[in-house]
Amino acid sequence: MERRYILGAAAAAAPVALATPALAQALPEVRWRLQSSFPRVFDILFFTAERISQRVAQLTDGKFRIQPFQAGEIVGGLQVLDAVQAGTIECGHTATYYFVGKDVSFAPFTALSFGLTARQQVAWFRHGGGNELLADLLKDYNAVGFSAGNTGAQMGGWFRNEVRSLQDLQGLKFRITGLAGQLFTRLGAAPVLTAPSDIYPSLERGVIDAAEFTGPHDDERGNYVRVARNYYAPGFWEPGANLHLLINKRAFDALPDLYKHALEMACLEADSEMISRYDHFNPLALRRLVAAGAQLRFWPREVLQAAWRANEEMIGELSSRNPRFKSIMDKYLPYRNDLFQWFRVAENSYDNFAFAAAQQRQ
Q1: CB contact at 8 A, 83 and 77
Q2: From CA 313, how far away is CA 315, in angstroms rounded?
Q3: CB of 110 within 8 A of CB of 243?
Q4: Using one digit for the tens of pLDDT, what is the confidence trace for 51-72?
């Protein structure tokens, strides 16, 4: 673990090729393809795939080159893991919770309802055993994975009609991903899993009544405000949505160690770069969305309380049916609770006062 921190710091401080000229001549030319789960229009998400590719080339003196493709160019955005597992592509940038249909254990490695925030995810992956738990899961899919970005806390989505109570969720066709879909089923909604590129046309045609994606920057680019005005917060099912670079294990094992290190470093840089971009661009986009007619709303407390209870019940039921998921939750939930206690002491007490005080001065 210490090795990757040292390498990451070195890469950030000195953006030069890892290989000396003599060594570079001896290294093989490697060409990979990287499929993103996201279309290019969502620039921060797709930029991460491009940035990883660029940094790997820089760090290997151009010997190891990865060509990024947007969703749908090789396979569909939700088929990235299948393509990586089969070796159709060498790697893919995606969210693991897209694959809960294969195993619900994939969910917490992206986000869990009322789970870890972005900063807390970093601690869990690097120090709380998260990386090791994901590695064990990915073995069954001929893959390895590196954390490669986080959106931060997401918004609750776009709704044609206002949600005033639990009753308003009954039968609601809601585009939502991961275990959150199962959670909203328990709340009475009718979840629909839709690829990011299909959200707008599905809303426009009335195939769905509501949709969540990420946050203001991406949602503005998706133009959802044109077809659904009610914009809810927070996305309590994605308090810190983590993304990963999933890599075909045979392809990864065949790389020289230098190339493996370069790939690891590029993902470490992407991990911090993505969320810094979202934190910079989201407030600007939110102002524009409100000016364009978005009605900013917050979930009724009744909905939040019912969702918390339903989520606790769901985790218990899933754990009773899936031993792997249970073993992950046995580690994840105590770790989450410890972090929640600490964040209440310093972070939350600061936020509650300072954020409100700053708003009053505007």
Answers
A1: no
A2: 6
A3: yes
A4: 999 999 999 999 999 999 999 9
